[in-house]
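S1.2 Input.
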Amino acid sequence: MFQETAPISPPRFVGPTVNRSGFEQVGIPRQSAPLLIGQPGVPPQDFVPLPTLAKALVVALISLVYCLPPVIPSALAQSHAPALEAPQSAQGKKNTAKSIARTPLDDLPIPVQEMRDAILNAALRGDIEELRGPIEWNELRPEFAIPRDADPIAHWRKQSSDGHGRDILAILANLLASAPARLPLGADLENNDVFVWPYLSEISPGKLTPAQHVELLRIAPSAEVASMIARDKWTWYRLVIAADGTWHIFSKGSQSNLSEK
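S1.3 Output.
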C-alpha cells in the first residue's frame, strides 16, 4: 500500500578549500553552494577578502603619515618667527623716546610688582641689611658688578658716603619711583619681557627731551648727567627685573643699552 523510498542522506560538508582567487572556503554544505554569488563555491572575480582590505588600509594610512610634508609644524614656526627675530632687529639701533615701551606700575606682572615692592620697602626703611631679603629670593644672586663671592651689603656700605649705604638706598628708591621700560629680551617666548629702571637708561642721552633731561637730573647728580649727555652713553645706575620676578641687575655703568644687545 505504501511505496518504499530510499533514505535521504544528510548534507555532506567539505573541508577547507582554496579557490582560484585565493579565497579560503570553509565547511560550506554542498546544498548551500548555490546561495553564493556566481559559480557555486567560487566568489566573483572582483571580490577582495576582508584581510586584504585591512592590510591595504593600514599601508595607505602609513603612507599618508610619513609622506606628507610637515605643513603644521612649518606654519607654527612661521607664526613664531617674528617673536624670535624681534630682539635681533633692534641690534645696533639707538632708541628714541618714541621707540621705548613703558609699563605703568599698576600694570606690571604680579611677580615684578612683588620684587619691586620688596626692594623699595627695604630702601625706604633706611637699613641696607633689609636688602638681603629680596637678594635671597633669587636662585642666583643679581649682577652687582662686584666679584661673585663678595658681600654686596658690605660693598655698598664701603662705597657710600656715610658708611651705612643710605645713599644707595636713596638711589634705589628714586629709580623705582617711575614706570620702567619694557624690553622683549627674555628666553621664554611666552614670558620674555624684562623691565628696566629707569626707562631713561634705554634712551640715548643725547636724544633726551627737555622734560626727560629734568627727569634725569632728579635721579642722577648734575655732573653725571652732563657727562652722559656729552658722551651719549648711560653711565648711571640701572635695575632690571624679569617678568617672572627675577632680579637680574643693579649696577652702575656696566653696559650699554640692553636693547642693543
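S1.4 Remarks. The chain has a mean pLDDT of 75.
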